Each structure stands twice: as structure tokens, then as C-alpha cells.
Amino acid sequence: MADINNTIATTTEVVITGFGGQGIILAGRIIGKAAALRDGKESTLVQSYGPESRGGACSAQVVISDKTIHYPYIRRPDVLVCMSQSGYEKYIDDIKDSTLLLIDEDLVHPGNIKIDFFAIPATRMAEEIGRKMMANIIMTGFFTAISQKISLAAAKDTVAESVPKGTEALNIKAFSKGYDFGLALLKGREKKAAGKIGAIA
Question: Which residue in 28, 55, 3 sits closest to 140, CA to CA?
Fold first, then answer.
């Protein structure tokens, strides 16, 4: 299982992947800006589009570090966020045993993989609040809670300044839904782990 509380590593490499139209690049930009402009870290963003912007493959590579970043391209991500099956299949062979994997559970079916992963119905949750296009913001909140690589305050402030005027409150609501879902998932796993330890004792 990925070590989500690793405070020793000073550099975190994040790949966010999906298809054009999901706001993948915006999610990467929010994470990078939150780290650099509000958490006082270094960050880089490299974006990649498929043959067509909407519907084609799309990814954002974000590097977050406590030191100067000399190489912005990612070979083996520390965190892989997948919002499409094709994106998952493209990057899954690049992961490490320690990679933290986050998926949209309705769009990505991981099959039999050796590492643990965290799933959220981000697109479905976005549809429930009436804005399917906000699935990326929900996933950004989920990433913030599970990875703990950017602070909550930095992420929320960056979301508010990165979305279209007039949609700030709804986007913060979407972000909070993803963040709260992530926290609840972590707490559930902690309770389950404590229960197993208690049973063994």
C-alpha cells in the first residue's frame, strides 16, 4: 500500500490523466499553483493532449518539491490520478509499488493490480450537483485529502481563483465533496485496520 504520510521525500511526481473536456489540465494547474504560490514549494506543470483536445487522451504532469526542480517530466509517478480507462491503461505500467493510485470508479476499472488504490465516483457526484464538468474539481478535493501533498487552505483558495467568475461557490462545494469523501475513506480504513489489530491482540 502506498505510504500516504511520507514526510521524508521532498519531491512528489503527480500524473493526472483522462480525456479532453474533463478539465484535466485545470486540475493539474490548481495543484501546482496551490503548492507553489500558497504552500511555498516549487512546482512544474507539463501538459499533453491527444490528437483532438475534446475526447482525446489528455494528461497533466505536476512535480512538487521542497527544492529546485531540474527536470519536469515524469517517468514513474508517485501519485497517479485516472479519470479515463485509456489514461489508466497508458500509465499503469509506469507505476511503482509505492505509487498512490486514485481513480474515478465509474470510468476506470483497474482489474487485478498489485497495489492498493482509492476510488471515488467523481463524475457521478458532479452530476448530482448538476455540473458534470466539475468532476475534475471533485477529484482535486479527493487528491488533496488522500495525498496530503498540498494544504486544504491552499487548494481551496486556488480553486476559487482558477474557475470562471460566478462559479466560485459551486466549485468550492464540489471540491469539498471530494475532500470530505477522501477523509471519510481514510477514516474508514483506519477503523478497519484498528479492528484487525484489536482482533489479533
Answer: 28
H-state helical runs in the chain: 24-33, 85-91, 122-128, 135-147, 152-162, 168-200
pLDDT digits (tens, 9 = 90+) for 47-90: 987 654 566 789 999 999 999 999 999 999 999 999 999 999 99
The arrangement of secondary structure in 11-200, i.e. its CATH architecture, is: 3-Layer(aba) Sandwich (3.40)
Please give the grid coordinates belonging to residue 144. 488533496
Which pLDDT tens digit goes with each residue over 154-166? 999 999 999 999 9
End-to-end CA distance of the chain: 22
The whole-model pTM stands at: 0.90
- What is the distance between the alpha carbons of residues 129 and 99, in angstroms, rounded to a whole number? 31
- Closest among 5, 74, 22 to 45, alpha carbons compared: 74
